[in-house]
Write a structure and sequence with these properties.
The protein contains four helices and four strands; from the N terminus they run E-H-E-E-H-E-H-H. By secondary structure, the chain is an alpha+beta fold. It has a domain of about 100 residues: Transposase IS200-like (Alpha-Beta Plaits). The chain has a four-stranded antiparallel beta sheet, sandwiched between helices. The longest helix has 18 residues. The C terminus is likely disordered.
């Protein structure tokens, strides 16, 4: 019997700055943060599918091997990106870059992945300073499964 390959899984990571600091409001800082996220993902053996850098938070949809523990991966990526931001002086050294450990959710189906991608694309099109309520997104779309399961 041929060996069955387990497809990679997707995870949605959200990292917020402490006290809502708007470190990524300048386009150059946001672009550097996105490159740092993609580089950290590549170094960890996964792929950043979608990266959205807002002034006070970062959303990442990452594709990871099915056997990889996604919680540990999220913490590692968060630590590696913080180190890159401090080294490049995008964030003041000696201060925490992220508030707590961040948030990680495994996306259990292709439909959930598509909804999160679509919502992040909509958030990315909002004018600067718009309030983005991630909790509401997850309550409406993923946790309650409105329209996708």
């Amino acid at each position: 019997m041929p060996e069955r390959l387990t497809p990679p899984k997707s995870c949605h990571l959200v990292w917020m700055t402490p006290s809502g600091r708007r470190w990524f409001k300048i386009a150059g800082a946001a672009a550097f943060c996105e490159r740092a996220v993609r580089a950290a993902c590549a170094a960890a053996g996964c792929r950043a599918d979608t990266v959205l850098v807002l002034p006070d938070r970062v959303h990442v949809v990452v594709r990871v091997p099915a056997a990889a523990p996604h919680r540990l991966l999220g913490t590692r990526l968060q630590r590696d990106v913080a180190a890159a931001l401090i080294r490049a002086r995008q964030v003041p050294s000696g201060t925490p870059v992220w508030r707590a450990e961040g948030w990680c959710a495994a996306l259990s189906s292709p439909a959930a992945l598509a909804v999160v991608r679509r919502q992040l694309a909509l958030v990315g099109e909002q004018p600067a300073g718009a309030v983005h309520n991630v909790r509401r997104l997850w309550q409406d779309v993923v946790l309650e499964g409105r329209g996708i399961w």
